[in-house]
Amino acid sequence: MSNSQFFIIILSDIIAIGVGIFAGKYIFKRSFDQKDKEAQERAAEILRNAESAAENIKKDRILEAKEKYLRLKTEFEEDANKKRVILQTNEQKLKQREQSMNQTMEQNKRRENELETLKTNLTQQLETATKRREEAEKSLQQQVIQLEKIANLTADQARDQLVDALKAEADTRAGSYVKSAMEEARLTATKEAKKIVIETIQRTAAEHAIENCVSVFNIENDDIKGKIIGREGRNIRALEAATGVEIIVDDTPEAIVISGFDPVRREIARLSLHRLVQDGRIHPARIEEVVAKTRKNIDDEIVEIGERTVIDMGIHGLHPELVKMIGRMRFRSSYGQNLLQHSREVAKLCATMASELGLNTKLAKRAGLLHDIGKVWPEESDLPHAILGMELAKKYKENPEVCNAIGAHHDEIEMTSILSPIIQVCDAISGSRPGARREMMESYIQRLRDLENMAMSFEGVEKCYAIQAGRELRVIIDADNVSDEKAGMLSFDISQKIEKEMQYPGQIKITVIREMRSVAYAR
């Protein structure tokens, strides 16, 4: 190909490209102009729509403002009318009050005038009365002088004689009244009470065991004593340290004495000794092991005794700690009376008495069983056992009536339930029944002496004797100096003094004996 031809081809391509560029530019321009025109038309339409919407919104706002203005105007007018009515009403009330005050002031003025008149009249009457009283006093003095001359007595002497006569008559009448009142009370109030108590006692029976502060462990021969003591006493020291009791090994044949105030510890020591003697291996390590096992067995036995007791008594829902403390009662005694047997007996007495009186027997039995629960609390406490038992019952969510009965059975707190006096009475019945408890001979004799000396301190008492183990006091009085009426008063006064100054189980009967003897001789 020649150069001219090549040039022509290139030139034609350039021309074709230029024509294409020009045509594309023209077409693009026409498309851009068309889109620009459409955009302007759309913008104009949007502007027209916006102006129309703004006009509509403006009209709506104007209408809303007019409506709000009308509503506020109406409310203001209504409020103004109400206030106007209130003002008118208040004005009328003020006018009425002014009229009432004017009337009151007029009435007060009239009353002041009347009071002045009355005051004047009273002053005149008082002056007249004073004059009359002075005249009456003068006349009375003259009459007294004349009476003194006639009777040969002064006014003070006559008054003293009259007072003595009236006092003697009052004492006689008071004695008769007290005697009749007491007889009537005995006939009416005591009859049913005695019946209920006697029937309750007859329907209840229990076995009684005497517990001591020492236990005796029997052995087959005295050679075992040496093993128990150990080399230089190490075994017996280990045993005492582990159990908390005293082991007394003396010359008593075939016996070892276990001493301690806690009966549970004594029982642990007794059973531990029994197992050690049977096993034959007695040394400190073995002693600690056996005592630990025995203590675990005793704790299990205490729980079992408590559970068996509540099941036998038909009591449900007790806290496990209370059940455990009931089991500990088995190893505790009070004045020689086993505490668990005493509590069971009181519970039965309470249930029987509550049924006779138409009360809740379950609550009564529950309170009777728990009334001495404070005596077996293992920790030291300065509270009386009744208050401590009440606090424990409250702690373990017992019924408020049961708590009050426990706390009030020794009068430490006020009784707020009819159940409380029943618990107190049944506790006294169980404790004061002959054979239930023991007391030291010295304290027993001292109590009888105090009882007799207290009766001898009264004027007119010649002799007195405490009989029936201090349940009855017979007082012999001087018949010449003490009348029958005074004898009745004397028995009442002695009983009151005994109640205030002495502590004793059950009740004491005071019998005052007045005997009149007339002796003459025929010769």
UniProtKB/TrEMBL annotation:
Q: What is its EC number?
A: 3.1.-.-
Q: Where in the cell is it found?
A: Cell membrane
Q: Which domain of life is it from?
A: Bacteria
Its placement in the membrane is given as:
Single-pass membrane protein
CDD domains linked to this entry:
HDc (cd00077), KH-I_RNaseY (cd22431)
Coiled-coil positions are: 87-153
Q: Looking at the keywords, is Hydrolase present?
A: yes
User: SMART domains, alphabetically?
Assistant: HDc, KH
EC top class, as a word: hydrolase
- A GO molecular-function term, please? hydrolase activity
Primary residence: membrane
What biological function has been recorded for the protein in this entry?
Answer: Endoribonuclease that initiates mRNA decay.
HAMAP family from the UniProt entry: RNase_Y
**Which family does the UniProt entry place this protein in?**
Belongs to the RNase Y family.
Entry protein name: Ribonuclease Y
According to its UniProt entry, this protein's organism is Dyadobacter arcticus
Encoding gene, per UniProt annotation: rny
